[in-house]
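Protocol step 4 of 5: obtain the predicted structure for the target chain.
Materials: sequence only (see below). No template structures provided, no constraints applied. The aim of this step is simply to have a reference model before the mutagenesis design in step 5. Sequence pasted as it appears in the construct record:
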Amino acid sequence: TMNAQALIRLENISKSFDTNVTETVAVDSVDLAIFEGDYVAISGPSGCGKSTLLSMLGLLEVPTSGKYYLNGHEIQELDVYQRAELRNREIGFIFQAFNLIGDLTVLENVTLPLTYRPGMSRNERKERAMAMLEKVDMVERAGHFPAQLSGGQQQRVAVARGLVIEPSVLLADEPTGNLDSKNGDAIMKLLDDLNAEGNTICMVTHDSRFAERGHKTVSLEDGRVV
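Step 4 output (structure tokens):
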């Protein structure tokens, strides 16, 4: 019954990359369950497979072997289009490099993931985006462009963009990696608050201080859970 209730369940997931010379195993036989409302931190040294694991969780990479269930759907059975649709509906992303689009305003960046949402009017999309900007305290900057914002502000906008689809899980890849310590702490406080409101968060970090904020910590070494 525990398995039935997991939002995300990985069973013996592995991912290897073929180069001309050798096969590199990035993630090796990982089992993981993430439940609704969890705050999971995936930590470990650089190159241990954290980002590859997060990419598989986010349906950006396909496992070489093993099984992945998201809300009871077995992901292996889906084609590339079905995966993209599921990703757009269920998974919010926050990246280390913010990944905002420079020639779109803050509001347009946050609205972007809703563009492909059938049955939503332009006004509804805008309202939802403004509500998310309010959550991250960035409403006053809605008309600004990313280049006019500090790093901390850009990451707040990125968090709003990740939340706007009301995802089942928010995936954060080193969300403080490009920030100074003050802005990094502010972003972590924002993630804490979002989790307290009921958002499920899975974060990759190499910073043990931040990893400790998760309710569950998964430590990776050489692609395996230790």
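Step 4 remarks: Helices lie at 2-5, 50-57, 80-90, 106-111, 122-135, 151-163, 181-196, 208-211. The radius of gyration is 17 Å.
Proceed to step 5.
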